[in-house]
Amino acid sequence: MSKKIFYQIAKLLGIACLFATFSCRSIPKGASVVSDFDANKYVGTWYEIAQIDFKYERNLNNTAAQYSLKDNGDIKVVNSGYNYVKDKWKKREGNAKFREEKTKGALKVSFFGPFYSGYNIFALDKDYKYALIGGKNYDYLWILSREKTIPNSIKEQYLKIATNIGYDVNDLIWIDHDKENPYVK
């Protein structure tokens, strides 16, 4: 192989590596996650208070997420909600893994086999009652609560944090909780 061809191949591989690095970003640029995370306190049921609409939760309300620790250190995720268009409950199970050390709220979650996406805990109160979660980019944002409501002061605080990160909080859909979710234990 000539040196010219070798250098062209090396250049293409370098470009491909850069593309792969940036296309696999797991957190919006400039955002940071909580650094004193405790998975044992985080597990349990969380109700979605608000979320940016996306394909897998479209037409859902009464949405909740349940997290439980697995023996291997991963976190089992069960998301559920009521599809008000199809008039039926929907449930999806997934798996979350830590992207960094387990004391950081930087995880990745998958509902489709080997394909993972960022799950970033941007804010979490000291009692683990309210959380602000974002995905790999500005298309994914959730406000979660252990109850079906959230105090206005927490709501305003989390909206401010999300705005400062770069999210358009006008895109949030506020979730109704007017039915008992049969998947919530």
CATH fold category name: Lipocalin
Instruction: Report the average pLDDT across residues.
Output: 90
Measured on Cα atoms, how large is the radius of gyration? 19 Å
Considering DSSP H and I runs of 4 or more, what fraction of the residues is helical? 10-25%
Output the helix-strand order.
Answer: HHEEEEEEEEHE
What structural class do helix, strand and pairing data support?
alpha+beta
Low-confidence stretches: 12-23
| CATH superfamily descriptor | Calycin beta-barrel core domain
Specify the number of helices: 3
Number of strands: 9
For the biggest sheet, the summary is: 8 strands, antiparallel, barrel
Strand order of the largest sheet: 1-2-3-4-5-6-7-8
Please, how many domains?
1
What CATH architecture do you see? Answer: Beta Barrel
Residue fraction in strands: 35-45%
Distance from first to last alpha carbon:
64 Å
Tell me, what's the shape?
globular
Domain Lipocalin/cytosolic fatty-acid binding: 38-175
Family: Belongs to the calycin superfamily. Lipocalin family.
InterPro entries: Calycin, Lipocalin_ApoD, Lipocalin_bac, Lipocalin_Blc-like_dom, Lipocalin_CS, Lipocln_cytosolic_FA-bd_dom
Protein name: Lipocalin family protein
